[in-house]
Amino acid sequence: MRMVGAKVPRVEDRRILTGRGHYVDDLQLPRMLHAAFLRSPIAHGRVTHLDVEAARAAPGVHAVYTGADMRELSKPIRSPLSQGAVPEVYPLVTDTVRFVGDLVAMVVADSRYTAEDAVGMIDVEYADLPVVMDYEAALDPSVPPLFADLDSNVVHTATKESGDVDAAFAAADRIIEVTLSQHRIANVPIETRGLVADYDAGSGELTVHAATQSPQGLRLQLAQTLDQPMDRLRVLTQDVGGAFGLKGNIFREDFCVPIASRQLGRPVKWIEDRNEHLMASGHAREERIAARVAVTEAGDILGLTAALDLDMGAYPGMPFSAASFTGVIALLLPGPYKVRGYRCDTRVVATNKSTYVAYRGPWAMETFTRERLIDMVAAELGLDPAEVRRRNLLEGADEDRLITGPTVRGITTRECLDRALERIDYPAFRTEQEAARAEGRYLGIGMAAFIENAPGPKEMRPGGGFTGGESAKVRLEMDGALTVITAQSPHGQGHETTLAQLAADEMGVPFDSVRVVHGDTRLTPFNIIGTGGSRAATWGSGAVMVSTRKLREKVLAIAAGQLEIDPSDLQIVDGVVSPKGVPGKEIPLARLAGQMTLMPQTAPPGTDPNLMAEERFTGEETTGSGWSGGVHACIVEVDLGTGGVEIKRWVVVEDCGRIINPAIVDGQIRGGVAQGIGSVLYERIPYDSEGTFLAGTFMDYLLPTSAEIPPIEIVHIESPDDDGVGFRGVGEGGMIVAPATLTNAISDALAPFGARVTEQYLPPAEVLRLAGVVGAGAA
């Protein structure tokens, strides 16, 4: 049975669902101590007094660290991958706090309870400084920068221009202007951040057990910042309870805990509580775009300009700062549409908020902006939004390119749109909508298209892109089992299943005989990203495939020598090597592997008895367009009595190339849609004008439950089967496109009231305001 394309049950599920998973907080080491942090209660202020002596003297407390200590024990934290202006930052603040939740001191004690009590004994005083809480304050040149070593609170600027912008706007019949915005949200994985650092003073070995998406990236940054030799630094990551981009970051706490372990010579654990997570782990999605779109009366989109502002919070993210994502926003903003002229001006600003972090398609502002603009163009011109899309979509022809440059040869966006509208029965809905309005009911339909370079066409990733591709190790064990060692660091995506499916097919062994190993920097190939950016489907899979093929070549060469037959005349089926069409001459892999391990000298001349392969996949074997993408459509009903929004249907038509495991792909899509729904109707990180954080519990930060998520109908447009790596990333698409789909549907429902939806957050009060039921102050 061929494994690729089959709905193989996830091998991880039995372990996780029966409570046998291994998470950081499950780790209990002998003599282990526990850390807790003193966090700033104010948004911006100078630390004028800090007395930790009472905490140090408390029973059970082993150490208290301050910013002054960290200056002695750590280098400034810098990432070689950061973009924009980067201030000097240490693990703990040295003089100034810059957001509510900033790290002032760390207590290490016998228990978390003792550490928390000792935190309360620290005497600290602050002198308030002016807060910078919005774009206007951050852009004001008269406002002092948050960091003295920076020139201003504008930490990054860039401009991207393509085509003839002036000519496009000169030819327009109409120019539509609007400012659109996304609000702050939190990633909220079920498992919060955490790590255990264990320093062995005898060997000088530092072992860090971490809930991270990037074990090798964390290892590299710790080594550089703490002056810890790389050969004596090991990061271990087992099960991770979700991340959604958050745990691809490296945090200041990640330096504090190893420093304490190294100083005290004992293991130290820190597990973030939920209040800390909501307040200080990092936030996503605070951007605004002032857009101008030039159109004809017939609905042709001629030109687009955008002024993008992104609020990165106080501190730059690590290893990728917020500025890293603005380039992708600028690249993809025009989308798969015919545009003659385009310009995007970008500014990234610092404010007194928690750090901007990646969250499942951190460039999603491009899709929200573009797809809202298309609906606004349609409304302004009195045209159907589906027809405006059809009129402007690129076909995916050989000569088709984004206005920003990359080829989109082979994309299927138009087919996805037609099939989504067919599935949802668009004409019938418009008839139903008209009848419902006559009855005083307000239905709406929304649609939105997206594309994602996952991995993108070859021209976007020469030589394997900026990471140089990805490696994997594959080893045939003495018993005939296959061990796959991947550079990926999964946190819910099912890589132990999908990579095993690929290896089983490539090697010709049963699925159950393949084991996937990940998360140990002593074993895994280097990959600074780990798992993120929808990379695994192409890069992780490709690395496993080319490495397994190399190992298979070795095995067939040995068997061919033993059987005196050409390797091309051999096959491996169910773990047995045999001549094609000639029964009786068989060599089980277990026998061959055992012989090569115990008696490598018996290998036929010219063959390699080392039954292991490590190959680097650089994308040359990739097939298809390189673009993931699709179209979502949903139907909603708005209750003008409550402002509630009921999602009646949700249809997804997507193209992610060849599908390794349909059940896992569908799960990724549904999870992303659920998060997108949450970000529109429920979730929001609020601060007041003084920088006070206002969503420290789940009573204030609302999450959707299964009751709020509708059934999600999924249609796949799948690429034909081939021997290449035709798999494309699918993990982020649902979250990228769902907010635009839902806001477009709500806007359509409220069209009779002249509502113009410009913000993504649409709780009941905002819906009622848009409908004119309540005044502006109610939201």
UniProtKB/TrEMBL annotation:
InterPro entries registered for this protein in UniProt: Ald_Oxase/Xan_DH_a/b, Ald_Oxase/Xan_DH_a/b_sf, Ald_Oxase/xanthine_DH-like, AldOxase/xan_DH_MoCoBD1, AldOxase/xan_DH_MoCoBD2, AldOxase/xan_DH_Mopterin-bd_sf
Domain Aldehyde oxidase/xanthine dehydrogenase a/b hammerhead residues, every copy: 18-130
MF term (GO), any: oxidoreductase activity
Record keywords, A-Z: Molybdenum, Oxidoreductase
Oxidoreductase as UniProt keyword: yes
SUPFAM superfamilies to which the protein is assigned, alphabetical: CO dehydrogenase molybdoprotein N-domain-like, Molybdenum cofactor-binding domain
Taxonomic superkingdom: Bacteria
A Pfam family that the UniProt record links to this protein: MoCoBD_2
SMART domains the record matches: Ald_Xan_dh_C
Coiled coil: none
Keyword DNA-binding belongs to the record: no
Protein name in UniProt: Carbon-monoxide dehydrogenase large subunit
Lineage of origin: Bacteria, Bacillati, Actinomycetota, Actinomycetes, Geodermatophilales
